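Write out this protein's structure.
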Amino acid sequence: MRKNIVAGNWKMNKTLQEGVALATELKEKLASAKPNCDVIIGTPFIHLATVSELLEGSIIKVSAENCADKESGAYTGEVSAAMVKSTGAEYCIIGHSERRSYYGETFEILKEKVLLALKNGLKPIFCIGEKKEERESGKQNDVVKAQLEGSLFNLSAEEFSNIVLAYEPVWAIGTGLTATSDQAEDMHAYIRSLIAGKYGNEVAENTTILYGGSCNPKNAAELFSKPDVDGGLIGGASLKADDFKAIIDAFN
């Protein structure tokens, strides 16, 4: 059985003190809850060690938002997968569309990041998705297929079983636009068919595929009701404890 997951991506928001306050509030709100999904928060690097310690023993897992494509060495300002793991984080977001577009992260760079995350015992939350013009010209399937083949389909079936996928239509991130639940389901089903073609039905059925792209308390239940949508990678709504909990509650 594949996991349902609600994961927050804080992006470049919250000072350390504000992040600790938000994590504390979430921990308190979920202390007596028994959600029907796993809960993850993705925080900036500087929060990881403090927040991981704070959340130890709670139901909330911690993710980094990125890691380096190099193991170690003279790469000033970079943070390695081993460093991320040492903070107590269990997951790492890789390939977010903002990293691809603003920082030029290629299929090859992302392939290296995935391999290093897995080598260090992290579970990648790997992001894929098309831009507005690609959707409008009907190329969304080709784009997503190329992203999977370019960075993930080199993995063995055993390695791939540690990947969580997040489909994010780039045109719906932070824009207020959301893919309809049918659009999301169509793409998630297509992604699952690609995985089945590569690794077989069992691996495909066990792969968690999250929807990312202006998922909020109002639309979460409808999105999550679709058979191939296994949760969400939540941006803005993860920065408010009440909103994030409302999305988690959409699974109940």
